[in-house]
Amino acid sequence: MGYTDGTIHLWDSKSYEHKTSVKAHEVSEPLWASGVQALAFSPDGQRMISYGSGYSVRIWDLSPGRLIPVRSIPFGAL
């Protein structure tokens, strides 16, 4: 789940156990447009893409129990 405070929290879908969290995006004004705006997962569940404040896109490697940032794509680069 992504939150307006810029964090992403991963939960185990079977046990509902909190696995990890990371500060992924900055907080800005207005708050409703801040933090993490969207998350998407690859079909194999190995990667995640987050979209957040400042039009930033980040690609994450989902290793067991942690998030590893792979790449940040700045606004206008797509």
Structure write-up:
- This protein has strands at residues 7-11, 18-23, 36-41, 47-52, 56-63, 66-73.
- The protein has 78 residues and is mostly beta strands.
Q: Brief description of this entry?
A:
The protein has strands at 7-11, 18-23, 36-41, 47-52, 56-63, 66-73. With 78 residues, the chain is an all-beta fold.
Task: Give me the count of strands.
Answer: 6
What is the residue-mean pLDDT, rounded to a whole number?
78
What is the H/E order? Answer: EEEEEE
The strand line-up of the biggest sheet is 3-4-5-6
Contiguous helical run count: 0
Percentage beta strand: over 45%
Which stretches are low in confidence, meaning pLDDT under 50 for 5 or more residues running? none
Our Rg estimate from Cα atoms comes to 12 Å
The helix content, as a percent range, equals under 10%
Sheet with the most strands, sense and barrel status: 4 strands, antiparallel
What is the molecular shape?
globular
Class from secondary-structure proportions: mainly beta
Q: Indicate the multimeric state.
A: single chain
- State the distance separating the first and last CA atoms: 24 Å
